[in-house]
Amino acid sequence: MTIFNFISLFGGLALFLFGMNTMSGNLEKTAGGKLEKILRVMTDKPVKALLLGAAITATIQSSSAVTVMLVGLVNSGIMQLSQAVGVIMGSNIGTTATAWILSLTGIDSDNVFVNLLKPAALSAIVAFIGILMTMISKKNRTKDIGGICLGFAILMFGMEMMSDAMDPLAEMDGFRNLMVMFENPILGVLLGVVMTAVVQSSSATVGILQALSLTGAISYGMAIPIIMGQNIGTCVTALLSSIGVSKNAKRVAAVHVYFNLIGTIFWLALFYIVNMFVHFAFVDSAIEPAGIAVIHSIFNVATTVLLFPFSKLLETLARKTVKDKKATGKSAFIDDRLLNSPSLAVSESKNYTVQMGQVAIEALLDSISLVEKFDTKIVDKIIESEQKLDDYEDKLGTFLVKVSGHALTDADNNMVSTLLHAIGDFERIGDHAVNIAKAAQEINDKEINFSENAKAELKVATDAIKEILELTEKAFAENDLALAKKVEPLEQVIDDLLAEIKSRHIARLTGGKCTIELGFVLSDLLTNYERVSDHCSNIAVCQIQISKSVFDTHEYLNNYKSSGSETFTHSFDEYKDKYVLPAK
């Protein structure tokens, strides 16, 4: 064993970890925002959560990433601890997929097609396919798939390098004597824990163990406790991610620890107690990569079968370990840990922006109601909503800027751009709600009464404003471009309505039928109505334009209105007929 073997060993480990990170990162990008939607919908029942955890972990090839994701989701209040427990159990099953992929290293056959599955051949083929997809394709999704192929190829090549570097160890008496020490199950478990805690990936340490097994110096008796210890070691990542989070998020990490710790103690004790009486013949036999994959899978599945019926008890144990205090901290707005899963971060940002829009529109509708019936409690609610909207804009804007610094798909990039534009418009709608509330307070304090004509005209404008708000909210929340295209025609109708109301007001003013004081209040209301409809138009146009990966509002509006668009004309005529001012 020379210095060059050690260089190859660590170089192989570096390539292995880089390949795994590249592959899992591109797999996650390809999945897009679907992960968040699936996690939200499919964790209502324990069995569904278990299957989901297994599927997601097998897909992104990292149980640690899934657990960190869960800590972030629970800390943000998006998921409950009870939902996360099943996903954690499932992730332990899903992580065994990596070991089966790496077991290809141990293939030994004279068949040409079987030999193509060996890392040396397979990694070369997959790397060639991956580099072609990355360099030739113009589509980001295809490039991401190419990145998955390249990550896999690098991972397998790193595995091969580690295996080659460890070949001389088989001839070293010192190495064999060292490995005999780990026939002691306690030492074996500790080695597994330490290795995984250092590397921060159970999949990586299983890969290292599989590479070592090719020397023929690792027996089943040595491998079993090391594999069990690796499952405990992987909890370190979750524990680190739980620093500085809410109590419930800390409990996610606690559940992960208890699950692996209880499973290891139970099955290790049972195995060695039975072995004392039966003495399994395979214990002293040399283990191969495929054997490690089998042991890894059996242990993780068996632990899940053992503890799944007691998931509620695990949750209770975590709650008793991480106890509530009288003054509990607030959940994070959107936890920065979600930045480790950019597509998930974008999806959650959209959900929060939808919530922001609902707060803004509710505040605006509340302010409109004050014009007819004033209520100080509603005024306080509107002011509170406006402060909440400022908070939304500040925190969402900061978070979205952070997200934009990560590698995103085209769809996610477009969504980030849309959200950055939308949060400003929603915040301004909240400001106009406050302005209308102030106008309503002036009407109440000064006991101003509009004429019957003014009331009727204002009602038509108010109804149109309510519809454009409803239309904008629904189009944005559901990403419905067909609905979004109806906003601009209605905005144009509203502009025409407000212009006519102002014209009629001036006629009444010059005719002595209206006071200057009343005119100022009406003008304030109409100005705020106009600005609100403008912001609705901004949100809808932005949504439409960015979906096409362009953003030129003026050009779009000019083309949409002047080119005789059938959609615009039809919707405009429909709204024009619907919102008609009463006769003078």
Tally of individual domains: 2
The outline comes out as elongated
Uncertain segments of ≥5 residues (pLDDT<50)?
326-331
The helix/strand order is HHHHHHHHHHHHHHHHHHHHHHHHHH
- Sheet with the most strands? none
Count of DSSP-assigned helices: 26
> Level of helix content?
over 70%
Task: Supply the key terms.
584 residues; mainly alpha; Methane Monooxygenase Hydroxylase, Chain G, domain 1; 26 helices; 79% helix; 0% strand
Short description:
This protein is mostly helical and 584 residues long. The chain is built from 26 helices and no strands.
SSE map:
Blueprint: H1 3-31, H2 34-41, H3 46-60, H4 63-75, H5 81-94, H6 96-102, H7 112-115, H8 119-136, H9 140-166, H10 173-181, H11 185-199, H12 202-213, H13 220-233, H14 235-241, H15 247-278, H16 289-307, H17 311-321, H18 342-372, H19 376-404, H20 410-445, H21 452-477, H22 481-484, H23 487-510, H24 516-547, H25 553-562, H26 566-578
Helix pairs in contact: 1-9, 2-18, 3-5, 4-5, 4-14, 4-15, 5-15, 5-16, 5-17, 6-12, 6-16, 8-9, 9-12, 11-13, 12-13, 12-16, 13-15, 13-16, 14-15, 15-16, 15-17, 18-19, 18-20, 18-21, 19-20, 20-24, 21-23, 21-24, 23-24, 23-26
